[in-house]
Amino acid sequence: MSLVEVKLKLEFETGEIVTATLKKTLAPITIERLLRNSPYQTRCYYFGAKTVIYFPVYVKIGEEKGIYDLKKGDVFYWLVGESIGIALKDIRFPQRVNLIGKIDDGLEKLMNLKTGTSVKITLSEISEV
After folding, report:
1. Which among 19, 81, 92, 104 would be 20 to 30 A from 121, CA to CA?
2. Total structural domains within the chain
3. Are 1 and 117 a contacting pair, CB within 8 Å?
4. What is the mean pLDDT of residues 121-127?
5. How far apart are CA 122 and CA 37, in angstroms?
6. Would you state the torsion angle of the CA atoms of residues 104, 123, 16, 99, taken in this order, to the nearest 10 degrees?
7. Domain of residue 97, residue span
8. pTM score
9. Which CATH number do you get for residue 49?
């Protein structure tokens, strides 16, 4: 079996849960590094006028197929911020990021969190035969 996808689960102190699917084909090195260090206990912060929510994980990862343009619901690794980020709107991010996946469920829940809300981030493998 080979790793094709990774499930990402965000569990907030408020009880909200958000899930995403990360695609290894988008950025295999980035996803492997994030998976190796999971789970993460961190806090959430907003970038700009609530265009992006991000979660510092403090894992140094280099650029891998870096992009600027993000679509609503995209999950990415922000190199400069050493963070996992989620686009809450379509945006051209000011720095290159590694696109790693897409939100499956709960995107709307991310809009109303308070800055600094505690979150547990868990990544788990999903394999296909």
Report:
1. 92
2. 1
3. no
4. 84
5. 9
6. -50
7. 2-128
8. 0.93
9. 2.40.100.20
How far does the chain reach from its first CA to its final CA, in angstroms? 5
Chain-centre distance of CA 55, in angstroms?
A: 8
In whole angstroms, give the CA distance from residue 61 to residue 34: 9
8 A C-beta contact, residue 82 and residue 76 = no
- Rounded Cα–Cα distance for residues 20 and 104 (Å): 5
The CA-atom distances, in angstroms, between 23 and each of 3, 27, 45, 62, 98 are 9, 7, 24, 17, 12
pLDDT by residue (tens digit) across 4-57? 789 999 999 999 999 999 999 999 999 999 999 999 999 999 998 889 999 999
Q: Six-digit token pair at 97? A: 């990021």
Q: Report the SS3 class of residue 51.
A: coil
CB 21 within 8 A of CB 5: yes
Structure token pair of residue 38: 């999971």
What is the CA angle 75-65-57, rounded to 5? 45
